[in-house]
Write a structure and sequence with these properties.
This protein is an all-alpha fold and 138 residues long. It is flat. 0% of the residues are buried.
């Protein structure tokens, strides 16, 4: 029977089998020592380390996706720049037309909303006064 402190028992406990850890039978390998330290900690420390590990992995994935997105945008802009330049006589007047239309629509909407508020205030006062006349005790 193997001793509990023998290298083969430590290998089996750390790696779940008798397969040697990376780089031969070195039980002082950084991965082996990290796993021993992780197993010796309380569950609360393990949760904190797992949370920190998950945080770093998530940040790395998001950073990778951000880089891919930025690269795709720059390459797409470079690829479509000639088309944008050639069709600019269409885009500039179209932009000005859409901007003007949205501005006028916004002004009209805000004017109608302001007018509706005034009508509501006036009608509320008018009807309130008529109700007092109809029922003097009210």
């Amino acid at each position: 029977m193997a001793d509990r402190t023998s290298p083969s028992h430590i290998q089996q406990r750390l790696y779940g089998s008798t397969i040697a850890p990376p780089h031969g039978n070195n039980i002082n390998h950084p991965i082996a020592s990290f796993l021993r330290q992780l197993q010796s900690q309380s569950p609360e420390h393990s949760r904190q380390r797992f949370g920190l590990l998950a945080f770093f992995i998530s940040c790395g994935i998001l950073l990778l996706l951000t880089g891919i997105t930025l690269t795709a945008f720059v390459l797409g802009f470079i690829a479509f720049l000639p088309i944008i330049i050639i069709s600019s006589p269409i885009w500039i007047p179209l932009f000005l037309l859409v901007t003007g239309f949205l501005s006028v629509a916004g002004f009209l909407f805000s004017t109608a909303a302001d007018t509706a508020a005034h009508v509501k205030d006036y009608a509320g006062g008018y009807f309130h006064g008529k109700l007092k006349d109809a029922a003097p005790g009210a």
